[in-house]
Amino acid sequence: MRWIILLLFFVTASSSFSQNPYLFVGTYTNGKSKGIYVFRFDSSTGTATEVSTVKADNPSYLAIAPDGKHIYSANESAGPVSSVGAYSFDPATGRLLLLNNQSSQGSSTCYVSEDKSEKWVMVANYGSGSLSALPVNSDGSLAPAAQVIQHYGSGINKERQEKPHVHSTIFSPDEKYLYVADLGTDKEHIYHFDPNQSKPLTEASDSFVSVMPGSGPRHIVFHPAKPDVYLISEMSGTIDAFHYHENSGKLVPFQRIRTTTANFTGRVDGADIHIGPDGRFLYASNRGVSNTLAVFAIGKDGKLTNKQYVSVNGKHPRNFAIDPTGRFLLVANQDSDNIVVFAIDPVSGLLKATGKELSVPNPVCVKFLSQ
User: Does the CA dihedral 57-60-63-64 come out positive or negative?
Assistant: First the structure.
């Protein structure tokens, strides 16, 4: 009987946490923002309650450790060298405590990720066109970078692609590879990852895949069940779809589709890309003068079909996230100081604004802690 009671307790607690996950918001702090904001999100109503804040310098992207007890921030400072912040997180109180800031060994750090072994944090340095691998100490703090890889080259847009601009560092599902988008060179780089090596990254045999010149690769997302990868490009506002070869890391293209209507002619500024938990729909955000979310159905062959374009009810939707239940999508509008809550239709995948918003100064990253 005691084991049954304990099992019911843990199932109830897990269900409760899934229904009320923590929501972390990264911001730009050159205005009224304080740093990183922590909310408790109610997945039954789509409402959120602020729990705590912690000061940080332009924490423009956040990564949650697999154990849910540490948070890492890309501190996108304007100086010649940026930093990465390491925080401990107490799920009981919802509070963050700064452990340390460590140099990213590059400028304009814009993306951060941690491997499942919790040994390494990977950092994208947009300004310097490099990526860094920082070891994680036993207490979750960060040691100095053990490896820095500098990219070289340029693109056809001489104003924005005058040199490399590394924009993301994303692990493959099996974490055998690290995929690194370079806006400046129109390449998605592929590196072997071995967490047990002192320098964990080496070039894969197929070390990169190129996209159409002038695209400006930004972020990728892996399909949860298919060997497919989708890449959103910032400058072209397009999505390139690839088949992913797990044994080599190689990406083979099979579709390119725009994220705006056929007659749209303004600046796009593609930003973020995510797939719903059931793997049936893909979502992408566009900034520029569009300020929209695009919804795509994912076919059995992995190809995308556009279903909807919807206003974000704000300006400059830099990042968005889908809550763990798959019921809601929250989009962070950097220039209108609001995070807008959309309901996701469980059948069609279409979005509908709920009328609910969170007021946060210059929000640029939203992340859910689901476990």
Answer: positive
Give the integer Cα–Cα distance in Å for 49 and 39.
5
pTM score over 0.90: yes
Read off the pLDDT of residues 106-153 as tens digits, 9 standing for 90 and up.
Answer: 999 999 999 999 999 999 999 999 999 999 999 999 999 999 999 999
The DSSP letter of residue 8 is: H
**Closest of 340, 368, 337 to residue 356, by C-alpha:** 340
Is residue 193 within 8 Å of residue 220, measured between CB atoms?
A: no
At 26 the three-state DSSP class reads strand
Token code pair at residue 299: 């076919």
Say which residues have a Cβ less than 8 Å from residue 134's Cβ, sequence separation at least 6.
84, 102, 104, 120, 121, 122, 123, 142, 143, 144, 145, 146
Comparing CA positions, the residue from 313, 287, 363 lying closest to residue 48 is 363
d(CA 9, CA 305): 43
Q: How many residues does the chain have?
A: 371
Residue 256, both tokens = 């390119």
Residue 4 carries which DSSP code? Answer: H
- Nearest 5 degrees, angle CA 22-CA 24-CA 26? 175
Q: Which two tokens stand for residue 235?
A: 């400058």
Q: Kindly give the pairing relationship between strand 238-244 and strand 228-233.
A: antiparallel
